[in-house]
Amino acid sequence: MRGVFLDTLTMKLEELDTSALDQSLDHWEFFETTAAEETAERIQNADVVITNKVVLDHTLIENAPNLKLICVCATGTNNIDLDAAADRNISVKNVAGYTGSSLAQHTLALLLALATRWHQYADDVQKGRWSQSPIFCRLDYPVIELAGKKLGIIGYGDLGQKVAELGAALGMEILISQSFSGEQKPDRVPLEQLLTEADVISLHCPLTEQTDQLVNRAFLASMKDSAFLINTARGGLIDEPALVDALRNGTIAGAALDVLSVEPPPADHPLLAADIPNLIITPHNAWISRESRQRLLDGVVNNILHWRHQR
Description:
Number of strands: 11
CATH superfamily of the largest domain: NAD(P)-binding Rossmann-like Domain
Number of helices: 11
Strand order of the largest sheet: 7-6-8-9-10-11
Oligomer: single chain
């Protein structure tokens, strides 16, 4: 059995215990990155392929004669042509739930940054502005207390639930949006109500046809002008030019994002402009704790071993 891991750089394997992966197949090839034009050759003789973001389309799958298992080193499988894999009876396995507390922790960090503006105050200290202050402190940026504020959660799976628990621990009132499936649950509120009442809205729903650009101009206009938006889910949930306008116009008070629609973003991405007020962007690293990456790798190995056991 031969395996190939196409983009190990996304995992920083040198920090992880890879012994179980090494032993899961007879032979492995590891590549830090794989360009589109390199993929066909690298998977040509593989029985098992691990990919995080490398695309495996219909042509690539059809022309990999030995391929039997595709392991997606992530939750989303949108980079795999699932129909082509099914036609070839190739199993496709992903890993869910590996982020554990890492993503919720990052969401909380973004929330606290928006509320306290600590990152801006710390930057001022480094730039010497505190030393120049005529008083003992600085009060340049508004700070709010989160206790008593309403935290709106859109997407109430494991991650949404963890973020809700952290918000409740801060004394926030939790509002949970009704599911997009149409199923009505008594502990949840209509999205329209959540938008008008929430002081903070945190996105944790998957990107589907129904949620694509969910956060559009109407969504943003329905929010309080004092409200914050946080997205650690998928960049495509947001109409990005609409968010740029909302921040510049004061339609909402701030936003913090860990994901964009294109990653890595081009230098001229609208959200990377220098003049957007109260916007925090982190480079899709809410999931990157060592613990989270180890759980992800272990999940991939478990998928390989389970597949081998079933054969």
